[in-house]
Specification:
Order of helices and strands: EHEHEHEHEHEEHHEHE
Largest sheet: 7 strands, parallel
Structural class: alpha/beta
Number of helices: 8
CATH topology of the largest domain: Rossmann fold
Distance between the termini: 36 Å
Number of strands: 9
Shape: globular
Helix content: 40-55%
CATH class of the largest domain: Alpha Beta
Length: 260
C-alpha cells in the first residue's frame, strides 16, 4: 500500500513509535527511526525492519529539543529518499507535579518535545509534501489532548496544543493532497508502563491486577490496555488512500475514556 513512500517516525526506538514504523514498513514504506536508547538495541531494531520487510531503514539521533537537529533530520531523509511522505510526530515525555511545584526546566522540556518538536518537524517536511502533492502528518496526542488529569499540566497543555496545531495545519493543506490528524491513545501497554507496576504494587499495597484495573486503567471503561499494534494499525489506515478525507480530526483510541 505504501511502496515508494518514506515515513519518518519520531520517538520510534521502542513502544508505540517502533510499532508504527514496523507497520508502515510492512506496507512497503522506507522508514527513518529516531529516538533514544541503547545503540545496539536500536541497530537490531533497524536491521530487523530491513530484513523482515525488504525496505530501507535509517536511524537519526536528532534531539527533539533542538530545532536545528530536527530540520537536519528531515533534510537528510529527503536527500536519501527524495521526500518525507509520511511524518509521524510521536516523541513525547512526561513529568508529574502540582503546578506550583512544577520545575521550570521540566515544563520547558515537556513543551519542547511534545509540542514544539511537532511544529519544527512538520515545518521542515511540508514543502516536500507540497511538491509531491501528497502527504500524511499523524501526530500522537493522547486522551489528554481531549481531557485533563491533575498534576500533568505541561503534558495536558502540550497535547491540547498538538490537537489545535493539527487542526490549523489540516485547514492550510486541505487542497494540497495532504492530511493531518491527531491520534489520542489512552493507556497503551508498553515496557515503560509495565515497569511502573512493581513500584506501584509496593507503594499502594495492591496486587498486580489491582494496579492495572484500579490505578492505570481507572479511566478506561473497557479495563483493557490499548496495544501498540492497534495504534500502529490505526496510523497505517490514516496513511492510506481510504483515509484521504479524514483530516483535522482528533481521534480517540482510549477504551472509552473520553466518552463520558
Amino acid at each position: 500500500m505504501l511502496k515508494t513512500k518514506t515515513a519518518l517516525v519520531t520517538g520510534s526506538t521502542s513502544g508505540i513509535g517502533l510499532a508504527v514504523a514496523r507497520a508502515l514498513a510492512r506496507e512497503g514504506a522506507n522508514v527513518v527511526l529516531n529516538g533514544l536508547g541503547d545503540a545496539a538495541e536500536i541497530e537490531t531494531a533497524r536491521a530487523a525492519i530491513e530484513t523482515e520487510f525488504g525496505v530501507e531503514a535509517l536511524y537519526d539521533p536528532a534531539d527533539m529539543t533542538k530545532p536545528e537537529q530536527i530540520a537536519a533530520m528531515v533534510a537528510a531523509a529527503e536527500k536519501r529518499f527524495g521526500a518525507v511522505d509520511i511524518l509521524v510526530n510521536n516523541a513525547g515525555v512526561q513529568h508529574v507535579a502540582p503546578v506550583d511545584e512544577f520545575p521550570d526546566a521540566a515544563w520547558d522540556r515537556v513543551i519542547a518535545i511534545n509540542l514544539s518538536a511537532v511544529f519544527h518537524a512538520t515545518k521542515a517536511a511540508l514543502p516536500g509534501m507540497k511538491r509531491k502533492g501528497w502527504g500524511r502528518v499523524v501526530n500522537t496526542g493522547s486522551a489528554h489532548a481531549l481531557v485533563a488529569s491533575p498534576y500533568k499540566s505541561a503534558y495536558v497543555a502540550a497535547k491540547h496544543g498538538v490537537a489545535g496545531f493539527t487542526k490549523s495545519l489540516a485547514l492550510e493543506v486541505a487542497q494540497a493532497g495532504i492530511t493531518a490528524n491527531t491520534i489520542c491513545p489512552g493507556y497503551v501497554w508498553t515496557p515503560l508502563v509495565e515497569a511502573q507496576i512493581p513500584d506501584t504494587m509496593k507503594a499502594r499495597g495492591l496486587t498486580e491486577e489491582q494496579v492495572k484495573k484500579d490505578v492505570l486503567l481507572a479511566a478506561q471503561p473497557t479495563k483493557q490496555f490499548v496495544t501498540v499494534e492497534q495504534v500502529a494499525a490505526f496510523v497505517t489506515f490514516l496513511c492510506s488512500d481510504a483515509a484521504a478525507n479524514i483530516t483535522g480530526a482528533s481521534l480517540p483510541i482510549d477504551g472509552g475514556w473520553t466518552a463520558a
